[in-house]
Each structure stands twice: as C-alpha cells, then as structure tokens.
Design a protein that fits this description.
The protein is an all-alpha fold. The chain has 3 helices and no strands. It has one domain (3-57). The radius of gyration is 13 Å and the shape is elongated.
Length: 67
C-alpha cells in the first residue's frame, strides 16, 4: 500500500465513522465529516495533508499525490 491509498482509506473511514456516529450517537458528530471534507479540499490545492505526514513518519512508501 502506498501513501495515496493510505490517505484515501483513512479519509473514507473517518467520513463513514463520523456519519454513523452522527446518526446513532449525536448529530454534532457531523462536524467531523465537515472537517475531513475541508481537509481534503485544502489538501487538493496545497498538497499538505496532516494524515499523509503521519503515514510518512510511520514508514508508508511514497505515492504520487503527497510527496
């Protein structure tokens, strides 16, 4: 698995988890979905992704998007 796949999988898990939490726990969990969406949006412009930085430090091999 490369860095791009790891970041996309992590973002997908965060969005799905926060959507389920907002349905079954409390509606304010939708804020996590909004945060994840905003983070993906800004990363598409800046190339700066906190999750990619963490995965890089964990030794995930580089991909094409986040170098």
């Amino acid at each position: 698995m490369n860095l791009d796949a790891a970041v996309l999988r992590f973002a997908g898990v965060v969005v799905m988890a926060s959507a389920l939490l907002s349905i079954f726990v409390h509606p304010y969990w939708i804020g996590l979905t909004i945060f994840a969406g905003f983070n993906m949006f800004q990363a598409s412009f800046t190339g700066l992704c906190p999750a990619a930085m963490v995965f890089k430090k964990l030794g995930v091999k580089p991909g094409n998007a986040f170098r």
